[in-house]
Amino acid sequence: MHIDNSSGSASPGGAGERNQSTGGPNRPIRVLVAKVGLDGHDRGARVIATALRDSGMEVIYTGLRQTPEMVVGAALQEDVDAIGISILSGAHMTVFPRIIQLMKEKSMDDVLLTGGGIIPDEDRRQLQEMGVGELFPPGTPTTEIAGYIRQWVATNRDF
User: Residue 11, SS3?
Assistant: First the structure.
């Protein structure tokens, strides 16, 4: 049996089956939210984590001062659909490529890597060319972020 967190009701099948009415997974989308590096400001990450949870997603928040290895290891262990990195420190051109490299090494090709923070437009373009998903600037409505993750998972994850 699989417990549907949105209604608390039991339904047959597990995470590998699609919901016939929505075409989406028969379980909540799982998102890992992390702060990588020495950046000690996590208010935005907490706001995003709470908003994603309130939109029906299952959220794992790793807390502050994570390494790329810790993030990818936790994502693999938790079997997440998406990884969201909050970064304000300016280290995005080091952090995101390292996470992408680790994800490729672990064959996590069907997991979304997205994030947000203060990332200049040119860097954002370069990161997206490397395989990073949408990168959201401060002030982006949380509904836009949740909608993007939901759409990406519906399109790219094979349940």
Answer: strand
End-to-end CA distance of the chain: 16
Residues found in the chain: 159
For the segment 83-109, what is each residue's pLDDT rounded down to a tens digit?
A: 999 998 899 999 999 999 999 999 999
Find the CATH number of the domain harbouring 91: 3.40.50.280
Cα–Cα dist 143/5, whole Å: 19
How far apart CA 138 and CA 2 sit, in angstroms, is: 36
Could you count the other beta carbons within 10 Å of the beta carbon of residue 55? 18
Number of structural domains in the chain: 1
Q: Locate 117 and state its tokens.
A: 């923070």
Closest of 153, 16, 23 to residue 2, by C-alpha: 16
pTM of the model as a whole: 0.84
